[in-house]
Amino acid sequence: MAASVGLLFLLIGVSYGNKTFCDGRKERAQCFQPWGATVFVHLMDEVSEKTRFQWTKETTIVLIWRRNGLVTNTLKSRSEFISSNGTFRISNLRSSDGGEYTLKLFDSDGKITGERTLQLHIEGQSPLRVGAISALLLFSIYVICVIVICAQRKRQNGKGEELPADLTYADIRVVQQQERKPAKQNMEEEVEYSQIKIAG
Ligand SMILES: *[C@@H]1O[C@H](CO)[C@@H](O)[C@H](O)[C@H]1NC(C)=O
């Protein structure tokens, strides 16, 4: 049961694999992408022979491009920089891909000529994690049910002899006491419990 729920979520996750576009040419771009999707981040209009840039996620370097060639791509296994149109493709998006990315453009002397940030939001959770949480939840419910059924059986077997003291009824008498001090004429109500009978 739990395993099939997990598999269901996994299949939903696989069908996520749609391609989406994110325009990173504007400053402070906000991109929302579903978990597991493939995103095409448009970083710049054109990549020329002079283009030098680096793309970092917070303090981690993702891409370094120098003189017509890729120097570094730390997401190599599931990404590709398409230099013909300045687009960076990231496949199989994970929750850890979410965050702030900074693009720094340099001239041939290494001076910064432009800088812009992009916020990538990964929506939804890993289907595996959702599956695991569902399985855990179902298991917990099952355990609780077993405990409750066991407790009820124990009670029935004991035929009431070991029943905890049940309060059947209580006489509640309301005692009205008038305070002695004449300044305070407040009526105080006191609830007195008496004659508490124990069943069994
Ligand atoms: C860039 O090129 C790739 C591969 O041809 C394509 O899939 C992508 O949509 C293009 N992006 C833009 C912004 O044109």
- CATH architectural category of the largest domain: Sandwich
What pattern of helices and strands is seen along the backbone?
HEEEEEEEEEEHEE
Q: What ligand molecules are bound, each kind once? A: 2-acetamido-2-deoxy-beta-D-glucopyranose
Total DSSP helices: 2
Helix content: 10-25%
**Mean model confidence by pLDDT:** 79
How far is it from the N-terminal to the C-terminal residue, by CA?
Answer: 44 Å
Taken together, the total number of domains comes to 2
| Residue windows where pLDDT falls under 50 for at least 5 positions | 10-16, 183-191
For the record, the CATH class of the largest domain is Mainly Beta
Major β-sheet annotation:
6 strands, mixed
The shape, in one word, is rod-shaped
Strand tally is 12
Estimated share of beta-strand residues: 35-45%
Oligomer: single chain
Work out the radius of gyration.
34 Å
Set out the fold topology.
Elements (H helix, E strand, L loop, with lengths): L1 H13 L4 E5 L5 E6 L3 E5 L9 E6 L2 E7 L2 E5 L5 E4 L4 E4 L8 E8 L5 E12 L3 H32 L12 E8 L8 E8 L6
Parallel strand pairs: 1-3, 2-10
Antiparallel strand pairs: 3-8, 4-5, 4-9, 5-6, 7-8, 9-10, 11-12
Helix pairs in contact: 1-2
The structure holds 2-acetamido-2-deoxy-beta-D-glucopyranose.
The site of 2-acetamido-2-deoxy-beta-D-glucopyranose has 5 residues, from strand 3.
